[in-house]
Write a structure and sequence with these properties.
Elements lengths: L5 H21 L4 H16 L1
Length: 47
């Protein structure tokens, strides 16, 4: 959002950093790679 305070941006960055750190402790792929993997697995079943 234009004009958002700096603390909102910094808070967002902290939340995203914590999320990614926890994700990589449990999974070997990033969230987008995981979603794409699920989507392509479903597409393989269609053919």
């Amino acid at each position: 959002m234009p004009g958002s305070p700096l603390h909102v941006l910094l808070g967002f960055l902290v939340v995203v950093t914590v999320f990614v750190t926890l994700w990589f402790c449990h999974f070997h792929r990033g969230p987008l790679e995981w979603l794409l993997g699920k989507a392509t697995k479903a597409a393989e079943l269609v053919r």
